[in-house]
Write a structure and sequence with these properties.
Layout (H helix, E strand, L loop, with lengths): L13 H25 L18 E7 L6 E6 L3 E8 L9 E7 L3 H8 L6 E3 L12 H4 L2 H4 L1 H7 L4 H6 L6 E3 L3 H4 L12 E7 L4 H14 L5 E8 L10 H9 L7 E5 L6 H11 L4 E6 L2 E3 L5 H9 L3 E10 L6 E2 L8 E5 L5 E5 L18 E2 L8 E4 H6 L13 H11 L3 E13 L16 H16 L12
Parallel strand pairs: 7-8, 7-10, 8-9, 12-18
Antiparallel strand pairs: 1-2, 3-4, 5-6, 10-17, 11-18, 12-13, 14-15, 16-18
Length: 471
């Protein structure tokens, strides 16, 4: 009689047990990822990702899950419309930003007419200067044909040449800023206004200078210092003659022109300007900027209270077609400057509780702290500028210098803030700045990438809080 075989026991050795353990671990990891993804810790697993470009928008991300999506978004300075952030259709895809566009916002123009605080205009200022351009300059193709003009200059230069160097004054301050009181001008430090330029059109450059003279108290304006970054634009050969005529009508030694022997960007030019400056506060302006009523006192008052404050004005876009100011009546809601992993400057909504330090004034007239400055317009104590080491001289041409300076301001005991009561216009030119640079010999892409890498390496090192920047 055959024996019934005994039921065999399944033997699970170490290989079998290890496979089971790996399986259980994978299940656990999956559950953890799902849990954190649903609760926002891993937002890109079960939600939308950040768009590669946020140009034209000020974004503050709150929740990126499609089921509970919330992104606060506004149109950036120079853009208009009704900003919207739309959730992605599929997981991990970027959400969509829509609604903002460049140009004049007709609805905004109508709303401005109803504002309680109208933009006050006044007669042209005390000082006047005629723009004198010969026929060979005025007959150039870049002034006759709009396409050629915008390719070369990025804005309506023909309009700029026709409108004169002194326009009616503009008061872009809101009622809260107009009501603010500042120390007597005799108690505030004097400023050196430094204007860096490279191949800037003569009319925009001189209008910048003339509005500084007309809208700045004489007791506060130490000098206007023009720094030429080795320009080769033909019409700028006429600049010395215009400045000589200007010197005949403004107080003595109020305007100077210095030249660089080479052209490699705004960093070296700004360092030269700060070195040449003769007064306690330096104010850096882009060459295509334009100040408005009451622009300087708010900047100087903050620095007077604390010399380690670096103050940025409210930058108001100037339309590239008709050269009118786009906006006014203060900057609201407040926007901080931040940056992405490519070190690109972008805007984000400020925190009303932690970012507005002046608790004793109306919030619409209060400065707000900002991690990063836009770059082209700011005021700071001259000695503090050099205590930080100035700009890193290894940064070439353009790009990343504003982030590098912002890093060192915050890491080396200073603060960076935006003042809504100081309004300065700026032409955001739409052209390839490097494509029209005849002196550019390098591959600009590699230069800009090197600038970013330099900032990431050197700018984040607290050892560089003095002039001993590693090279």
């Amino acid at each position: 009689m055959a024996k019934t075989p005994k039921s065999s026991k399944v033997s699970c050795g170490w290989i079998c047990r290890s496979r089971i353990l790996v399986f259980l671990l994978l299940v656990q990891v999956f559950l953890i990822c799902c849990f954190f993804g649903l609760h926002g810790v891993l937002p890109h697993h079960n939600g939308c990702s950040t768009p590669k470009s946020t140009e034209g928008y000020m974004v503050q991300e709150q929740q990126l899950h499609r089921e509970d999506f919330y992104v606060e978004v506004h149109c950036a300075e120079g853009y208009h419309g009704r900003a919207k952030a739309l959730p992605c259709l599929h997981l991990s895809q970027p959400y969509k930003l829509t609604g903002c566009h460049k140009g004049i916002d007709i609805e905004h123009v109508h709303r401005e007419k109803k504002e309680k605080t109208p933009i006050v205009t006044g007669p042209p200022g005390k000082y006047h200067l005629d723009l004198r351009l010969p026929e060979d300059i005025l007959s150039q193709k870049s002034l006759k044909e709009q396409k050629a003009m915008f390719k070369q200059y990025g804005f309506n230069l023909k309009k700029s040449n026709e409108m004169g160097l002194v326009r009616p004054t503009r008061d872009l301050r809101n009622a809260q800023c107009q009501a603010r009181q500042y120390p007597e001008v005799s108690a505030l430090p004097k400023a050196s206004v430094i204007i860096i330029f490279f191949n800037e059109a003569l009319s925009t450059l001189l209008r910048n200078v003339m509005m500084v003279f007309n809208l700045t108290p004489e007791e506060l304006l130490g000098e206007v210092l023009l720094v030429d970054d080795h320009s080769d634009l033909e019409e700028l050969k006429l600049l010395p003659e215009h400045l000589e005529r200007l010197k005949g009508i403004v107080p003595p030694e109020k305007v100077r022109l210095v030249h660089r022997d080479s052209h490699d960007g705004i960093v070296a030019a700004r360092n030269l300007g700060a070195k040449e400056a003769r007064f306690p506060v330096i104010v850096i302006l882009d060459s295509h900027a334009e100040v408005t009523v009451g622009w300087l006192e708010p900047l100087l008052a903050r620095i007077h209270e604390d010399r380690k404050r670096v103050v940025v004005p409210n930058i108001v876009a100037i339309d590239i077609h008709n050269l009118d100011f786009l906006g006014g009546n203060g900057a609201w809601p407040p926007v901080r400057g931040i940056f992405n992993w490519r070190l690109t400057f972008i805007g984000a909504a400020a925190d009303m509780d932690s970012d507005l330090p002046e608790k004793d004034v109306d919030k619409k007239a209060s400065v707000w702290r900002s991690p990063v400055m836009p770059g082209g317009l700011f005021a700071m104590d001259r000695e503090y500028y050099w205590e930080l080491g100035g700009y890193d001289p290894e940064i070439r041409y353009y790009g990343a210098e504003h982030v590098e300076m912002s890093f060192r301001i915050w890491m080396c005991g200073g603060t960076l803030e935006v003042n809504p009561c100081s309004n300065i216009g700026h032409i955001y030119r739409e052209f390839d700045r490097f494509g029209v640079d005849r002196q550019l010999k390098s591959d600009i892409g590699k230069v800009l990438d090197r600038n970013d890498a330099r900032v990431a390496d050197v700018g984040t090192n607290t050892k560089n809080c003095s002039s001993n920047i590693e090279t």
